[in-house]
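Can anyone check this?
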Amino acid sequence: MAQSVDKPATLERLWSIAASLLPDRNPGDLNQALMELGATVCFPSNPQCVRCPVKKSCLAHQRRKELCYPVRSKKDFYEKITTAALVLRNKKNEVWLEKQPARGRWGGLWMFPFWAHKKEMRKELRFLRSELNSFLVVPHAFTKYRITLEVFELSCGKDMPLRQRRGRWFPITRLARVAFPSPHRRIAQALTAGNVPPGPLFLPKSPRRRKPGPRLT
């Protein structure tokens, strides 16, 4: 049975066979010839066997299995998923976090409000959908899933839009001390790196210059 060329043991065996075929004199000529053969004739998906100078010595050609080589491991199938999270910020520059149940994938960790599908988030925030702003995209992986986490941002006043959820407000300046799962840790890091309160940015006025006094002589 043919062995996969992307396995270390197979590569080691192939290098050993190649070393045994090298002539004592001018081994570089053989290396150059093999590279030219691979670059111009022996293509993996479309080999030009008709004009190959070594086809009589090729077992794959003799067995009519040229397209069966090289053998590679079967690629794993990954399912792509898109999820959504929300950075909900109040006027005190705090964000809303929710602690996960003790039993579960992220048991006991804090997370930003999270939905398995973006449409579920929009349904829960149906009266505020026009105020949602894109904030960040976090790609991550879990077992057979390749996940794209789309993060949105929303500012709120006195009224809490997520009334059915349990959680608490955290100052952005304290997020580094909170235990997050990896994807939500990246959201917190992005917030901490850009820790600017919402609204216009006011710069301090430059101090007035005093008029120079009389010069003493």
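Reply from J.R.: I decoded it. Strands lie at 79-89, 94-99, 110-111, 114-115, 133-142, 145-155, 168-171.
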